[in-house]
């Protein structure tokens, strides 16, 4: 009959065992009557008659050592057995504790919303649908509940990033078909990337699997070589769900004009509203549906820009400086509310009566000049628009044309975003009378692109603002610096204004993303921000 031992009986026997462990015997009972240290320290002479007794003592000690070793081996086995039992207990305890975790009591729809948020965050260039350590694959490996949730939720499989560098010729098509099957009949958000490291045949094969489901495309990012456009001829007139599109070739082709079949691939997409042709310079003019509302591309590739009369937001990238912009004048776009350009020469071709948000960015390291301000003034006179926000690159704010003419033509501005190359005394002096020049200004953003700071000028600026802001709608000031060493001295100048209740923040540029409320978006960031901004 099996006996049931308790922890009390085990502890009792351990106590008895501890008492039974023999004390060490350093000298045999019939051996030497002195210690080895007496000989080692010459407190006693070494005699020949001592040698047999020394050997007998060594034999006696070695025997005890082996006996203690045997006892320790047994104790170690017992200890390991106790640890194994404890591990089983802890494992069981962890499992039962996990059953009480709040996330396991979440309703299905909330758990699914959490998973979907993770999928949106992971949908970027570095994602890889072919890796089981990413996306819904990794979520399904946590527990049975999560696996059942993932496998029964088509929405988790309808958003995928496909990097053909990791595609395998045998598994890629099968894996993609599995994902598409899991996504049910939901619209697909697809980001596909190919690079020079991609194997052409494997990429084409995997891309063909994607094309077979083109009727379900909703948001699509394609960073592929131009040769892939030929494969897309089969999707023409078969894109009923496509809403937004970003095209970006990995390598720009030297040819200037696309074949007619490729130019018209997206012309019949009935729901397409948002299109970005990123780095497509020289590939020619894509024919897009006339109802697009958001458009980004090179100005020289948008020959028929005036046909898109439903445009609300436009990002126009100018060609290289050596190229000439050949566009009709003027192009009237009645519904455009937001415009981004990197060359003010494009303003000479536009008539935008509904324009509210304008961003003028300098190309590369160049600066804006008085001529840029003149082009801006011409647009304002021609369009008679009421700008609500203006973001201006470096250089223009120090010119007399901008300070004396442009600002006076934009009295409806509520948000002004200025990039300063250095401490612009002329601009700060003009800003001193901002209630008269910009009576509706509420948000002022100053981007300080210099490693030095002239505290006397900033002190004068804060004093001027302190004099006027109580009688103006100004309530937010953001100073964004590129160097952390100028943040503290500049912030010290605004302490009196903060104490009076004005919302002021002086931060380093990488910390300013959540604070930036101006209408700024650059082509360099367009690819990553397109969906979050336009969805």
Topology:
Layout: H1 7-20, H2 36-40, H3 50-98, H4 108-122, H5 135-139, H6 144-151, E1 159-163, H7 171-182, E2 188-193, H8 200-211, E3 217-223, H9 227-231, E4 244-247, H10 260-263, E5 274-277, E6 294-298, E7 313-317, E8 331-332, E9 338-341, E10 350-351, E11 357-360, H11 370-383, E12 389-392, H12 400-406, E13 415-420, H13 425-431, H14 434-437, E14 443-448, H15 455-468, E15 476-481, H16 487-493, H17 495-499, E16 503-508, H18 523-534
Parallel strand pairs: 1-2, 2-3, 3-4, 4-5, 5-6, 6-7, 7-9, 8-10, 9-11, 11-12, 12-13, 13-14, 14-15, 15-16
Structural overview:
- This protein has helices at 7-20, 36-40, 50-98, 108-122, 135-139, 144-151, 171-182, 200-211, 227-231, 260-263, 370-383, 400-406, 425-431, 434-437, 455-468, 487-493, 495-499, 523-534, and strands spanning 159-163, 188-193, 217-223, 244-247, 274-277, 294-298, 313-317, 331-332, 338-341, 350-351, 357-360, 389-392, 415-420, 443-448, 476-481, 503-508.
- The protein is α/β, with parallel strands linked by helices.
- The protein has a domain at 55-100.
- It has a 14-stranded parallel β-sheet, sandwiched between helices.
- Strand 3 (217-223), helix 9 (227-231) and strand 4 form a beta-alpha-beta unit.
- Helix 7 (171-182) runs parallel beside helix 8 (200-211), helix 11 packs parallel to helix 12 (400-406) and helix 13 (425-431) packs parallel to helix 15.
- The model is unreliable at 513-535 (pLDDT under 50).
């Amino acid at each position: 009959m099996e006996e049931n031992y308790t922890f009390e009986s085990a502890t009792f026997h351990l106590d008895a065992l501890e008492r039974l462990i023999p004390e060490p015997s350093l000298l045999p009972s019939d051996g030497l009557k002195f210690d080895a240290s007496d000989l080692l320290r010459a407190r006693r002479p070494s005699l020949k008659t001592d040698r047999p007794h020394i050997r007998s003592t060594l034999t006696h000690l070695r025997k005890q050592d082996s006996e203690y070793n045997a006892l320790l081996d047994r104790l170690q086995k017992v200890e390991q057995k106790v640890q194994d039992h404890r591990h089983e207990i802890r494992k069981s305890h962890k499992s039962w504790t996990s059953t009480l975790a709040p996330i396991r009591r979440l309703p299905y729809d909330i758990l699914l919303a959490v998973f979907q948020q993770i999928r949106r965050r992971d949908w970027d260039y570095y994602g890889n649908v072919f890796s089981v350590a990413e996306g819904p694959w990794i979520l399904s490996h946590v527990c049975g509940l999560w696996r059942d949730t993932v496998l029964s939720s088509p929405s988790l499989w309808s958003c995928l990033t496909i990097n053909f560098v990791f595609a395998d010729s045998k598994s890629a098509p099968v894996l993609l078909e599995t994902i598409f099957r899991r996504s049910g009949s939901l619209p697909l958000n697809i980001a596909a990337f190919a690079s020079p490291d991609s194997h052409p045949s494997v990429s084409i094969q995997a891309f063909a699997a994607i094309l077979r489901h083109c009727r379900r495309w909703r948001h699509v990012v394609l960073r592929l070589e131009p040769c892939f456009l030929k494969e897309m001829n089969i999707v023409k007139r078969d894109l009923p769900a496509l809403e937004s599109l970003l095209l970006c070739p990995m390598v720009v082709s030297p040819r200037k004009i696309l074949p007619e079949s490729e130019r018209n691939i997206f012309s019949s997409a009935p729901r397409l509203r948002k299109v970005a042709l990123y780095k497509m310079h020289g590939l020619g003019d894509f024919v897009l549906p006339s109802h697009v509302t958001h458009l980004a591309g090179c100005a020289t590739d948008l020959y028929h820009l005036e046909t898109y009369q439903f445009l609300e937001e436009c990002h126009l990238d100018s060609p290289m400086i050596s190229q000439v912009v050949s566009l009709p004048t003027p192009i009237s776009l009645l519904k455009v509310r937001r415009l981004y350009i990197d060359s003010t020469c494009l303003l000479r071709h536009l008539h935008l009566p509904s324009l509210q948000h304008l961003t003028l960015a300098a190309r590369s390291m160049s600066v804006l000049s008085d001529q840029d301000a003149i082009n801006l003034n011409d647009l304002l006179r021609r369009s008679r628009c009421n700008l609500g926000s203006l973001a201006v690159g470096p250089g223009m704010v120090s010119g007399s044309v901008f300070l004396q003419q442009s600002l006076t033509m934009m009295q409806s501005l509520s948000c002004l975003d200025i990039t300063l190359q250095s401490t612009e005394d002329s601009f700060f002096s003009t800003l001193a009378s901002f209630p008269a020049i910009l009576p509706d200004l509420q948000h002022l953003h100053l981007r300080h692109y210099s490693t030095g700071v002239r505290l006397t000028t900033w002190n004068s600026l804060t004093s001027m603002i302190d004099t006027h802001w109580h009688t103006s709608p100004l309530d937010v000031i953001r100073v964004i610096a590129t160097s952390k060493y100028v943040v503290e001295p500049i912030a010290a100048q605004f302490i009196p204004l903060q104490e009076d209740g004005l919302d002021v923040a002086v931060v380093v540029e990488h910390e300013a993303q959540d604070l930036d409320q101006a209408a700024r978006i650059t082509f360099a960031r367009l690819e990553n921000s397109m969906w979050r901004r336009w969805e």
